[in-house]
Amino acid sequence: MRFYSTNNSQVTVSAEQALFHSMPADKGLYMPTPLPYLGVTFFQNIASESLADIGFALSQALFGDEIGKADLEDITHNAFSFDTPVVELEPGKLSVLELFHGPSLAFKDVGARYMAALMSYYSKRKDKEVNILVATSGDTGGAVAMGFHNVPGVRVSILYPSGRVSDLQEKQLTTLGGNVQAFEVDGSFDDCQAIVKQAFMDDELNANLSLSSANSINIFRLIPQGFYYVSAYGQVKKYNRPIVFSTPSGNFGNLSAGVMVQQMGLPVDHFVAATNLNYVVPSYIKTGIYSPQSSVATISNAMDVGSPSNFIRLAHLYGDNYDRFKNNISGYFYDDEETRAGMKHFFNMYNYVSCPHTAIGMMGLEAYIRDTKRDVVGIALATAHPSKFKSLVEEVLERPVDVPERLAVLADLSKRSIRIPAQYEVFKESFLHTVL
Ligand SMILES: N[C@@H](CCOP(=O)(O)O)C(=O)O
Questions:
Q1: Residues lining ligand 1, Cβ inside 6 A
Q2: Is the ipTM of this complex over 0.95?
Q3: How far apart are CA 329 and CA 381, in angstroms?
């Protein structure tokens, strides 16, 4: 498998180059070519395995010519020591796919840990330290910090918007130390993402350092996110009815990963893109006009993305055809008041405690089923453990929320961050000071 740039399909690079360079110099994003059609039978055969075994089977189908079987087995089994259960709220109709059983209690563990294992594999033959730059609106940072903590030959710098992540999310980014450092940016997630992207285009930085990204701009953060759609399919295929996934969305990597496995042959009937007030994609689906905006701060902060990086990937997956796009994805969005009401509704109705992002996915799914009156197996992706948003969830549901030990221990640790304005030159100077 090779990887082309969304800005120039003629130039392709190897998996290793796409992994370490993250972004092509022409400012596009890498896409796999060819995206193999593996067929429904392939997915039927692997879907009931563990997440690690699904990951292994798919990795072998995709990169088996580049990485040997035993190494791929190590990579996937090291990455996925947890599973992604489907919890049925209304059997055969409405379920949640719980993606928060990994170390950082968010779905990003899947991509971050796979990438970390892959980088460790390739890094053995590299002589230069790899500098991972990552922008986060909440969940990516924690998963990347934990996934790459103490990985030899790798240093991680996390940029996050000051005051716009939850307390426990911030602790995950700022307390590990060692090879992980955090930049607290006076700005939005989009400012953090713009700084990271500018760093990848900076000749001076690239001449001196080996820079890579662990955001979903890196195709290897995104590919493993397809594995859990397969796992979910394995858990509900017994119903033998059309499957609809509702994906809470911010940077749209999660949804792009789902569409990729669908195009490889996973039998998914339809997707719902569910967002908060950062609704540029639902708005595109409605109007055909794509118009990125400044991000709006909401209680579902991890989805506060006004200019989603992966829109371009989605457009490519549909051959830049608006009708194909809107026939396969429906869009729904919710403000904070509706999100709070949704969290209460799912608790009262099913005794299910959800984080605000998951509630948005569940509301989008309910709305799709109500609007279309289709008889489908609906699965909403549960992206983060509710305890990551402890104070909000407790306030909305008026009940205490249990915090798993691995998160609770962070509460008493002191944060260490480097505070900077949202200015590239200030970041660059400070970053160079820490890494050179
Ligand atoms: N929702 C994200 C924003 C970054 O998205 P990514 O998928 O590109 O890493 C977060 O939680 O940080």
A1: 136-141, 215-216, 250-251, 253, 302, 305, 309
A2: yes
A3: 15
